[in-house]
Amino acid sequence: MSDINEDLIREVVKQVLSESKSQVDEPETKSFNSNGKKRIFAFSIRKDEEPYVKEWAKAHPEIEVGYTDELLTEKTAKYAKDANGVVVYQQLSYTAETLQALADLGITKMSLRNVGVDNIDLDKAKALGFEITNVPVYSPNAIAEHAAIQTARVLRQTKVLDEKIENGDLRWAPTIGREVRDQTVGVIGTGHIGRVYMQIMEGFGAKVIAFDTYQNPELKQKGYYVDTLDELYAKSDVISLHVPATKDNTHMINSNSISKMKDDVVLVNCSRGALVDTDAVIKALDSGKIFGFVMDTYEDEVGIFNADWRHKDFPDKRLENLIHRSNVLVTPHTAFYTTHAVRNMVLKAFDNNCNLINNKPADTPVAY
Ligand SMILES: NC(=O)c1ccc[n+]([C@@H]2O[C@H](COP(=O)([O-])OP(=O)(O)OC[C@H]3O[C@@H](n4cnc5c(N)ncnc54)[C@H](O)[C@@H]3O)[C@@H](O)[C@H]2O)c1
């Protein structure tokens, strides 16, 4: 599950880093459980992660835990001095120099709190003998729940209703809802997240069908799968994407695939922006073919999502247009962002690192 938008955060983090270079010489670090025990040091701990670092430290008095809110760079690596391993999460690259700086301190055990390893210089890591772990699954429910909630909101036209109520218009018509149990929900991708989404939609009483290039035996036995995407497009009132973006499925939702869908279809993308040709969706929203669109990920989100545009010119007219439509629900790649998910990312990364520094097998090693 490679996925809080790693590219996007990398951009934001680069800016923050360039603004905070002056702090590098004066480390602001905190630590627990000192006394010559084994030590784990964590970088770029956000405020919302801090309680879970403390929770882990409290449960592991045998390990000394230290952390900083600063990113791991060639210069900040020194904060981890005397540590046996590091816990990290950043979009900024783990360059050869950064890895070398850790190795110079004798640290080659690194545990990511996230999934993706594409920003690590893996050749250098290999040459230095790094052992790396990640957290591939932290809370499928976070994303599935968000997708399900937004699906139901589109069907009940809650954005239209909220706008009407705010303006003092308390009439019912014409804002009539569609019940989830009357929908056939087509799920593309039946991995960790897609499966939870299926359960939630079934809980509402929907008929669920699915397509995946790999068919899960249990789901297959229960008869969920259709044989082709075209069949799923033709039969579904709601279509929700839960597949990774690859070069083969870029813009899999395009004018051609939309033309195969039912009229008044609801489209849900809480997966990856690149899966959807946004212009084609806008055309279909304009023509009324698409009833509503849930968009937690956007193909041009890097540098736009997770930033405050309140007192600046909004940088993307197309996105602005979508945000202002009453049948489009835009969220800035926040489906994953729950206390449960963040807690799991922190605790699992520390568990992994603890195993590594004690020469035990970690739950989720990165094979590279
Ligand atoms: N919005 C968010 O905050 C957020 C957070 C985490 C993950 N995600 C996205 O959710 C996606 C799904 O995550 P997951 O943990 O369920 O992944 P997963 O690996 O458990 O499941 C993905 C499924 O997609 C299937 N698949 C791959 N390519 C396919 C294709 N072209 N057609 C049909 N099926 C295909 C795989 O066989 C697999 O069953 C991730 O890839 C990521 O893009 C979004």
Automatic annotation (TrEMBL):
Ranges of residues in domain D-isomer specific 2-hydroxyacid dehydrogenase NAD-binding: 154-335
Protein name, UniProt field: D-2-hydroxyacid dehydrogenase
Family annotation (Pfam families): 2-Hacid_dh, 2-Hacid_dh_C
GO molecular function, one term: NAD binding
Family membership noted in the UniProt record: Belongs to the D-isomer specific 2-hydroxyacid dehydrogenase family.
Residue stretches making up the D-isomer specific 2-hydroxyacid dehydrogenase catalytic domain: 45-366
UniProt keyword terms in alphabetical order: NAD, Oxidoreductase
